[in-house]
Amino acid sequence: MLFTACVKEKKTNIDYETKYTYIEKRFPLLLNNLNKTEIDSFINVMKFNEQGILSSLDIDLLKKGSKKEFKNYIVNFTKDLGSNVDYIAIINEVGEEEALINNYFTNTSNEEIPLSEIESWDGLFVITSLRCGHCLEFFKTLNNLSSSDVKLVALFPQSSIILENYKKGTAYSNFGFLNKNWNIFFNSEDIVKQLLPEYSDKTDGFPYVFYRKHGKTIKLKMDMNFFTEENLKLLLKKYN
Asked: Could you say which architecture CATH assigns to the domain 105-239?
């Protein structure tokens, strides 16, 4: 399926080698996962606008070649065109809309918030889990934080169903949950991947704390004394 942006395309031809180099830089997985015939077909479809920005491509081959990185490739392609990346869709041959990416995330207050807005927040972000004992113990400390100037954001990778089950157990009676000071998101893996792409739950674990300021992530040194109320309040004061 051809994916074409509504922009004026460049009239001059771009040669095979230039397009191949573009793929190497922007869509490198295609070179590993597509055969020579498929690469040639993808290159043949590629069109660039007057600013030299890619405006048309074969989305089926992009999906086949990019595998798990498909969403990131489409987001980058759309960003290059200056378009909104919070909702990306294509229209098929019979006029039906298919959502490729819907970057709206619903928090526990049932507010739908676009990823672009979350990216713009200044504040303290905590990647946490209801399957982590230390995370549960950390709730009390986190609930003693408050700030009118910056956001407090909790990111749970699991489904919100786990919260429903957690509230039925004894752990909830002992540790409670985060209070209304916090913006809480479940199914947050895509948020984490965008804000902190190098994070891995296997190597970095839970809870993992980082700060966002002016659209940039500030990584913090988390030693034995890090997870105290006093230290976190000092962090909020430092970065406000």
From this structure: 3-Layer(aba) Sandwich (3.40)
